[in-house]
Amino acid sequence: MFMNNLIWHDIVFGVFVFATAIQLFYYLYFYIRVGLYSKTEYSSNLPPVSIVICAKNEAANLQKNIPLLFQQDYPLYQVVVVNDCSVDESSLILEQFQATYSNLHVVELDEEVIKTHDKKLALTLGIKGAKYEHLLLTDADCMPASNKWIANMVRNFNENKEIIIGYGPYKRAKGLLNRLIRFDAFFIGLQYLSYSIAGNTYMGTGRNLAYTKTLFFRNKGFASQYHIQSGDDDLFVNKVSTPQNTSVELSHESFTYSNSKTTLRTWLRQKRRHVTTAKHYKLNHKILLLGNSLSQYLFYLSFIALLFSTISPEMLFTVFGLKLVTCYLVLHKSMKRLNEMDLFLFSLFFELILLIIYPIIFIGNIFVKNHKWK
């Protein structure tokens, strides 16, 4: 019995060390790239740009954010708003703005004409209605961090770069839930931005994303994805991105900010919809994402198990401390780069909470149907 316990403890310790090594690989090979990212060469060309926004019952956000888009310091651009069968005052507000801003183009969708559809169709019609080749996508509830948003995103386009991946954080607000949601968004951003810098782009966020019309139509838009409820941003990028045609933009002036959900229930509903697309990613991306998640669970579960074993506490906490210090150093640098430093001290706590929440989200998707675009 004693020998069996020793063997069991050795196996669990081996799992713990292996999980630690995998986590260190992700942090030191991928995630550190965000904090260390530096780019000095940009295109001097400032092409005309079409900003495309899909809005469904977003009257309040349109009223607040549309004027900000027309304060951009950029020579030539238009704003295309797809009013997607809204039943609030969106149409009236957009009509009033059109009288003020000549470069506002509105695409009205009528539910009587277009019966069943999701955001992909609305976005496709917006792109078709866009005047210019270079497209900059955001949401109606998003606010540019500065009047240099367009310029900072578009400066990355050149003859090779057709996709620009930006960062779209949530605004700071009071309360633990806001910080948890923002940490989740930060870590997702840390993943897709670092993977992209490493030449392995797997997604972008529709809150802050740019690509060309030629790229969109050359790949037949969302034709292969219309049967999937979500994915107008990440699945399209996952499909068409290459190490050669994609760039990232990390300047603080290029961010777009939006309000986070204010209740746990609405946030979990949003997360349930978002995670449904991951199973449609390319195989190598699924393996990378799964590897990080599994190693996280193995690290903490094996650590807890070893607390009740005969393994030397000094050895156990040395390995645990190595992982913790390394991760905190990388997170500190990355959070500074992405202007999320107020989350730093709570990083471990939020990581543990999310490790509990994500299985609940995945189980929920098995038994409950996802909510449609609205």
How many beta-strand elements?
Answer: 9
| Mean of residue pLDDT values | 91
> What percentage of residues falls in helices of 4 or more residues?
40-55%
Bulk shape: elongated
Radius of gyration (Å): 22 Å
Structural class category: alpha/beta
CATH class of the domain at 49-181 and 198-261: Alpha Beta
The ordered H/E elements are HEHEHEHEEHEHEHHEEHHHH
| Terminal Cα span | 60 Å
CATH third-tier fold name of the domain at 49-181 and 198-261: Spore Coat Polysaccharide Biosynthesis Protein SpsA, Chain A
Share of β-strand residues: 5-15%
At CATH level 2, the architecture of the domain at 49-181 and 198-261 is Alpha-Beta Complex
Low-pLDDT segments, ≥5 res:
none
For the structure shown, list the relevant keywords:
Spore Coat Polysaccharide Biosynthesis Protein SpsA, Chain A, 12 helices, alpha/beta, 374 residues, seven-stranded mixed sheet
